[in-house]
User: Fold these one by one.
Assistant:
Number 1:
Amino acid sequence: MITVHHLNNSRSQRVLWMLEELGLEYRIEPYQRDPRGLLAPPELRAVHPLGKAPVIVDGGLTLAESGAILEYLAAKYGAGRLSPAARTPEHVRYLYWMHYAEGSLMPPLLLKLVFDRIARDPMPLFIRPIARAIAARVRAALIDPQLKLHLDYLEGELAKSEWFAGAGFTAADIQMSFPLEAAAVRAGLDAGRPRLWGFLERIRARPAYRRALERGGKFELLR
Ligand SMILES: N[C@@H](CCC(=O)N[C@@H](CS)C(=O)NCC(=O)O)C(=O)O
């Protein structure tokens, strides 16, 4: 049986969702983030040297990196489901979004998380105004315009088809869900971008998504 090393409020939620979509049996090995630093506990390093989630163990294979895990599961267990046929235009789009989610969209969202926390978290009184001024400047000059650029782009892309790779729901939508859920809590994504908002509403209504939430526990993305 597949084991998912699952960190609360993390990217491993989308692996649970993928497994539910495929109707596979799996067990969850749960980990809790350190409430102060938000890092994973050190025990996760015994599973994979980076100590990050998700990691799956399937027989003799230990695999990290959510995009690789989703592609592995689709190839091994999908029997044609959740990934478009090779050498089709949909498959090229599928590949693009699979890589874009972590490679292009997550970096500004992570910067947003870090700089918002610098501005908000307790710190010695004498450095607070300086730290806040630097954080405000980086957000205004770099992070917020980049996030707007990405979200506007994505809103336009969803005008082309209902799902990211085309007319059919695929693992690329599962991969894109995490940054878009993160954008909803930390980057102002709301009903003002109706196609992206509709995407979030559609994925949240999927029975497999809901079952994954029940199995994975509370899912409150960091802000
Ligand atoms: N690109 C990797 C990112 C993995 C990652 O950074 N995971 C976060 C959870 S969302 C994590 O484990 N954070 C805790 C830590 O870094 O200690 C993936 O998509 O799997």
Number 2:
Amino acid sequence: MDLGGDLTVDQRVATQEALYDLVLDALPARAGDRVLEVGSGRGLGARRVLRRDPTLVRGVDLVPEQVERATRANDDPRVAFVRGSSDDLPFPDESFDAVLSVEAAQHFPDVAGFARESARVLVPGGRFAVTTFFTRTGDAGPPLAELLKTFASGLDRPHPIDDVLRDLRAAGFADVTARGIGEHVWRGLDRWLELGPRPDRWDRNWLVAAERGLLDYYLVTARKPAGSGG
Ligand SMILES: C[S@@+](CC[C@H](N)C(=O)[O-])C[C@H]1O[C@@H](n2cnc3c(N)ncnc32)[C@H](O)[C@@H]1O
């Protein structure tokens, strides 16, 4: 995307849609899938999932207002949003073919619990893909809290990427992979924040933190082994 001129809200939405498409390609999402999104926010992702011709789409979010917004924004009968937590998913065992999460797992207090719950609700052979920012090392928390308001407040948590991958393997996932995609994310985000309505002294530090090697934006994929129970 050309980042030279003014960035519009439509362009910002387009970049978020592109992120969803990346995740849906990585899963991969297939026609007929039952798909769960964890941390579904305002429900933008469900509309993107519908383009892949799923049987059913569910979004789960911790915040009731987000669930209400997402419900209002989606009227397809295959889609529904419910309130729930990433480490206590309100769905039966083996009820989804694919689980995805976009820019939400950095909030989750218990990534191991999220991994276990995702494995539980997936059918054997089920597919898993997450994209968001994780730290590159285990000691990035304090410097990130100096640079970024959301880490200072505890809204974002400094989960090291190696711990995320370990938690997924411990939950029984196979083919666990991580790819850094920050080169496609940070400059666009920085430009958006620069042009935003009320840029503050913290905003521009995302690019600084990435360039200092404190964090990266990752695409993480995994698969629940076929023939595995629960
Ligand atoms: C930055 S928003 C991203 C929303 C959406 N995925 C998107 O990309 O447009 C993160 C969302 O995760 C939700 N969230 C945070 N912690 C959660 C948890 N433990 N379980 C479920 N949802 C959570 C928040 O309420 C918020 O709606």
Number 3:
Amino acid sequence: MDNRHSTGDTARVPRVSFVSLGCPKALVDSERIITRLRAEGYELARSHAGADLAVVNTCGFLDSAQAESLAAIGQALNENGKVIVTGCMGAEPEKITARYPGVLAITGPQQYESVVAAVHRALPPRHDPFLDLLPPEGIKLTPRHYAYLKISEGCNNRCSFCIIPKLRGDLVSRPAADVLREAERLIAAGVKELLVISQDTSAYGSDVKYAASAWKGREVRAKFLDLARALGELGAWVRLHYVYPYPHVDEVIPLMAEGKVLPYLDVPFQHAAPAVLRRMKRPAAQEKTLQRIARWREICPDLTIRSTFIVGFPGESEEDFRLLLDWLDAAELDRVGCFRYEPVAGALANELATAVPNAVKEERWHRLMGHQQAISARRLRRRVGTRQQVIIDEVHGPRGESDAAGAGAPTAKGRTRGDAPEIDGVVHVASRRPLRQGEIATVRIERAGEYDLHGTVVGF
Ligand code: SF4
């Protein structure tokens, strides 16, 4: 028998360690690079020290993220010595080489081919046609039952606080059929929930004039609504992230009411004071936005709205800030994240008005978070007594924590249709029978804490 392809051969498998920093979009980039490297026969090492080469996928969005990225590069150099840098910070290579002239290569965001080429140069692949098989669903860094689905790169907006268009360029949408094929492969591989992401999800397809592509004998346009509908037909949960508040977002709400996509909207409103929104170069129609939110909830009463805001934006007055708090009272959003404004180098916003002192930013951040906490808690309590579908993320027991009867019943952590992984709350679930990760159970909600819910499985 010919044993040339057995693993006990002479050439050692090349091993690469990988650090992925930044947002879910960067995580998808990492998944793509890793998929490709694994397909070519590279192995992933758990530590830099145990690898032949380290790749660091950096984030350059805020100064604090850049500092974290530089620290990660330094650590990889110390522990391994052979380091390739990619990701958002790669768009400004001089910042990296000034501090670490010894890095082997620097590539920018989405430059998968360049990263892989750099890895080939530094650590040639061991060709083995028997081992170099690419699982059709790719290698995912997220748990198996949910996956991020990136539908476009770049952004055509020019929000004055953001340098992403500079780093990542203008909007480039993937053909709808490509996105749908990837979604189908992921679902075939066990994914139960698709998290649709991009810099600006609702602008999807505007760069290609909503061109249609062929999918299962029909044409699907590269349009936010059409793609959401087609994804919703695949049988998995579909969650929409980073939806810029364009008027046409209203069209997707009926799909949520019909249960085609999850009744969940992640819309970064960023502020409510018209003067601040104008300086941010964001849509500034806060009254209209309140009416739209009310209308969305009329059409889809289960809708969960998550948003993010920036406090301490240049020129933000106490009055602007109070207006934001009042707006939050009226909007009654379910989940809110808040950032203190950071003067990212190169952002237009820094030149528009006087900077807000750090102490004021800090004070406003605490006020906003405290203010919203009461609203979010009130919204969460409305779910007590209802039955919710819950996707199971983590299981414990049956010999884990005991139930009230002391019988050592299985417990788990999951999420309702209104909770995105990693950013929203969870449901602590008790169950009579063991649960499986990725399973969707019907849970009666019995109690609400500040962020999380507690309940018992009543059906599957
Ligand atoms: S929409 Fe998002 S990515 Fe685009 S410029 Fe604004 S903040 Fe940046």
Number 4:
Amino acid sequence: MKGNYNSIAPFYDFLSKAVFGTAIVNAQQFLIQTIPPKSIVLIVGGGTGWILEEICKVHAEGLQIVYVEPSEKMVAISKKRNAGGNKVSFINEAIQDAAPNNKFDVVITPFLFDNFLPPTAQWVFEKIDRLLVPEGSWLFADFQLVRKSAWWQFIMLKIMYLFFRIVCRIEANHLPDTDVLFDQHEYKLIRSQTFFKNFICSFTYRKSKAIYAT
Ligand SMILES: C[S@@+](CC[C@H](N)C(=O)[O-])C[C@H]1O[C@@H](n2cnc3c(N)ncnc32)[C@H](O)[C@@H]1O
């Protein structure tokens, strides 16, 4: 797997807040409101794990969470988070290598897909899709560029990719088209919001019902 966030794990959240203020947190707070009680939840690329504390504010207990994160430094920080009465199992591996035992009611991919070139994005998408139950929710947050995006967003994204390619050795140099992946796999967009002048998007998708052969 390409990409390693170990070197910036201790100051990742500081950097993210310095650049985006509360937008990254707000985008994920928006998503986690819709997690049903007692769900089995998969978080992929959760970083330092502050999302576990945010989830705990919505559901103090009753969730079973599997947290897949390849950076051991990120996992070490995440393990110190207060997840309340929710049960969290950590898998310190890339999602490509992880083999969770469960199927999930909810999957959360916060700023994960921007790490991947299109072929990896498709592979990872299909793996996560197989782990989600029919009619399960996929909570997706990431950066977006649309036709009407402001010029500074194009430049900011270029600088971010330059930084993360040098510091974390990520493979990607542009955003993969995840809208197409959700369309191709017949996901339904249930809820959406944008943040940071449309540069950040949060989408709640519902997986379609399983189609059984008759
Ligand atoms: C841009 S950071 C976002 C962190 C966090 N979600 C946040 O919003 O603060 C991307 C995270 O995805 C993780 N990641 C990168 N490649 C991954 C992969 N193949 N499988 C799982 N996680 C991955 C990185 O280690 C990193 O913690």
